[in-house]
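Problem: given the chain below (81 residues), write out its structure.
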Amino acid sequence: MELGHVKQTYEGVIDCLVRDQLLGISQKELYLFLKSKSITDSSEMVVKADLFAESRGGSHNVVARDSPGVQQDRRNRSDNE
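Solution.
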């Protein structure tokens, strides 16, 4: 997480976490696109990601279903069962 551009407020930290999570589930092409834009607001990032996905036929083409976070969530769920 890049802390240099995070507003030192609760909202700023939450915004940074949302951006980090979005990047974490993005496939490489979307990830590189979003990083190249130097976006500092999660709302703007979501809009750009939606436009990017729409131009490529939908979110199923740009979101990694087996991102590290999704894999960890699956492991946690199976451990709790």
